Amino acid sequence: MAFNYLNLVGNAELMKQLNYAMIYRLIIQQSPISRIQLAESSQLAPASITKITRQLLNKKLIKEVDIQQSTGGRPAVSIVAKFDYYQAISIQLSRSHVMIELYDLGAKSLASKRIPLNDFTQQQTQNYLISLIELFCQEQQKKIKHLIAIAVVMPGVIDSVKGIVRYTPHIHVDNWALCDILKTKFDVPIFIGNDVQSLALAESYFGSTQSVEDSILVRVHRGVGSGVIINQQLLMNHNQSACEVGHIQVNELGERCHCGNFGCLENQVVNNAIEKRAKLLLEQGYRSKLTVDKCDILTICQLANQGDELAEKLIKSAGENLGRAVAMMVNIFNPQCVVVAGEITKSPEILLNAVNNALYSQSLKQLRENLIINCSSLDDRSAIGAFALVQQSLFDGSLLMAILENKS
Ligand SMILES: [Zn+2]
């Protein structure tokens, strides 16, 4: 049988990438860490650690620091991550706005700008996006010292492997090859992904699910989206989409959804649906501090927290419906933690109590026993989700290799 040398080369390169990724991740998560500790934790030979850390040092991804030993004597050299040398541009495209942010590698936002987005076609959005990035680069040229990537997230079905936008609710797209287009224009690695899935990833890297392996994030905004993290990795199917929770039926007699079915979760809990219900009840004479002219979701949350009966009932009802869908997800995925994101979380106590009530009656006891339910600790209007895609490619080694192989 012929020996496949091509495979061998591929495997050797993959092994190299995985080893570099493992060391970089250990340094991020356990710094300051010595070379000896790195060798022990990674099970790699000390010579390999010396080689890998030398290259990471050369590319200014890590730095050495002196740590004073508790036993006295000479300080020991340890390694920490260096976050301020490279930067990444992260963009969140929502239905009405574009959020463009500059991050360093420690996920620190260095600059941000939020601009309204009009009803554009694919081509118009593309041109707009390119000119926006160009302008942002000009404005932030002092802060952008070494740009290593641009990441874009948006709602819809986004093929992050092929770099193609298959569907996004606010723009009519035809297999929009956004990655290739931005790569040609800006000549840096480009990442694209679904906004809520990316937010789930961000929560697992920088937020409240950092310490668990399996978690679910559900975001309520104009729609309902979710992301599932299993073994600290984003769950993806062949279509790069997963868990369209918004179209789980939670009310058989509910209103018709844009998808054609009746009583979808989305129609019960999105901001717009809560606001519409508030308005209707106010018009019918329900007594509340809310008024027909001021019953936006943030006011509803604020008054619910102050004990306004109508506002409280609206959040409670949304929470119970959300809890029905969360219970189904808990029964299927058995996560350690569920995180809720969106404006509705401005009323955390009422919301989480209602979600918990539904969960109590509709999920298996053994699966919910140690389950933690939290509100997101991240700002879901920031572009942190997009930055999580950059972090993901550093952690899987692919972007790391691109930096190491860059001769400049
Ligand atoms: Zn639906």
TrEMBL record:
InterPro entries: ATPase_NBD, ROK, WH-like_DNA-bd_sf, WH_DNA-bd_sf. It comes from the Bacteria. It holds the Pfam family ROK. PANTHER family: N-ACETYLGLUCOSAMINE REPRESSOR, ROK (REPRESSOR, ORF, KINASE) FAMILY. This is ROK family protein.
